Amino acid sequence: MCFDQQRFMLMEEMIPSRRVRSADENIRMEVLRGELAETEARLARARAREAELSRRLENMKRFLSVMQILETYLKRRLCEQQQALILSQMSSSVPKNL
Q1: Whole-number pLDDT of residue 92
Q2: CA 30-34-38 angle, 5° bins
Q3: Per-residue DSSP letters for 64-75?
Q4: Which distant-in-sequence residues (6+ apart) come within 8 Å of 29 by Cβ?
Q5: Please, what sign has the CA dihedral across residues 50, 51, 52, 54?
Q6: 46 phi and psi, to 5 degrees?
Q7: How would DSSP label each residue in 28-43?
Q8: 10-residue block means of pLDDT along the chain (98 residues)?
């Protein structure tokens, strides 16, 4: 017997025979198909929710980045204004008759 014939015979042994299913088996198969469809639908909803949350997270990260830039700018402006005020006060307190 050649190798291909042996392989074919092994494959026949592994594949279940095509027999007619009983009514109970058909009902169970339909129940399983329904459960599979529900599971796939839940998975699709979970993936959509994950995508929405990821999008919102990226938006929040961008917003936070903008807020940090604004904070840095405002701190720098405050320092500049405080220094200008100090210089202004110092120059006004120096006697003019020197």
Answers
A1: 87
A2: 170
A3: HHHHHHHHHHHH
A4: 21
A5: positive
A6: -65, -40
A7: HHHHHHHHHHHHHHHH
A8: 58 61 92 98 99 99 99 98 94 72
